[in-house]
Amino acid sequence: VTGSSPADMCINLRLILVSGKTKEFLFSPNDSAADIAKHVYDNWPMDWEEEQVSSPNILRLIYQGRFLHGNVTLGALKLPLGKTTVMHLVARETLPEPNSQGQRNREKTGESNCCVIL
């Protein structure tokens, strides 16, 4: 495309940590959640030092209230090129169970320790 800069062909991700700290990174639509986690881990911002994790494998992205599986690409999410998209970045060993399973478990115990966004 004539006259477009490389940034127009990328997705700008603004990642927010639980602490509230944010940082922006540029990614290609072909990058997967696992690629993003590895890139962020390898280029961990200096002002995020207190939140440093031991491995990129425990970094999880949350987009619109949902954990993204490692093989999901930004293109598959239909994120707009050249625009900023906000995601949360958390350290978590495993992904939560699918909603239906979690719903059943909560009904049995009567407790709720997570939110389901519909």
Automatic annotation (TrEMBL):
Chain ranges of the Ubiquitin-like domain: 11-89
Location(s) in or outside the cell: Cell membrane
InterPro entries, sorted: MUB, Ubiquitin-like_dom, Ubiquitin-like_domsf, UBL3-like, UBL3-like_ubiquitin_dom, UBL3_Ubl_met
The keyword Ubl conjugation belongs to this UniProt entry's keyword annotation: no
Domain of life: Eukaryota
SUPFAM superfamilies registered for this protein in UniProt: Ubiquitin-like
Cellular component annotations (GO), alphabetically ordered: plasma membrane
Swiss-Prot/TrEMBL keywords: Cell membrane, Lipoprotein, Membrane, Methylation, Palmitate, Prenylation
UniProt topology in membrane: Lipid-anchor
Protein's name in the database: Ubiquitin-like protein
Originating organism: Acanthochromis polyacanthus
